[in-house]
C-alpha cells in the first residue's frame, strides 16, 4: 500500500511556489527520512501528504487511489508542539478517543499511564503529552505516520524512548514512517532511506 505524492505543487496565499512538480513515494512498512534546509517546504509536504493542506497541483494517492474522505485518515501527522495539537479544555481520554477505541497495548508500548488520561493537557509534561499525541496518531487504521520534528523539543532519553516505542509499534503493525528532522544522527539511526529535500 504505497503512499505517493505525484507532481505536487503548493504555495501559500498565492505567493511563490514552496514546492512544484514534487514526487515522493513511500512503501508499506518503510521508515524514510526527509532532511534539508530550513524553510524549504518539508513541513508543507508533510501537511499535504497527511491531508492537512490540499495541494494546488498534483495528487496524493494511497494504494493508487485518492485518500478516502469521511473516515479517519490512514495518513497521520504528528508535529513538534503537542500543546498546539490538543484541545486544552478536554481531558486526555477524550483527546485520545478521537482516533477510536483506546488500545491498551498501544498505551503500554508508549508507557502512557492510565492516570494521565484523567488530566488536562496543562497537567502533563511535554514528553507525556507528546506520547498521547503519538498514541492518537497511531490509532486504529493508521498506515503512515508523518513525524515532523516529533521529538525535537524533548530530552535525549525521552526522545530515544518514544522512538523505540514507535519503531516497535510500526514494525508490528506494518506502519510506515516519514521522519522529518534536522537531526541527521536520528534520521541515520532510524531510517532505511533518506530523502535530501532541495530548495526550489
Ligand atoms: N501558513 C503559512 N503561511 C504562509 N507561508 C508559510 C506558511 N507556512 C509556511 N510558510 C512558508 O513556506 C515555506 C516553507 O515552510 P516549511 O515550514 O514547509 O519549511 P521547512 O522546510 O519545514 O522548514 P523548517 O525546516 O524550518 O521547519 C517557508 O518559506 C515558510 O515561510
From TrEMBL:
The record's GO molecular-function terms, alphabetically, read: ATP binding; ATP hydrolysis activity
Keywords from the UniProt entry: ATP-binding, Nucleotide-binding, Transport
List GO BP terms, alphabetically.
transmembrane transport
Look up the coiled coil feature and give its residue ranges: none
Please verify whether the record's keywords include NADP.
no
Record family assignment: Belongs to the ABC transporter superfamily.
Question: Can you name this protein?
Answer: Peptide ABC transporter
UniProt organism field: Paenibacillus oryzisoli
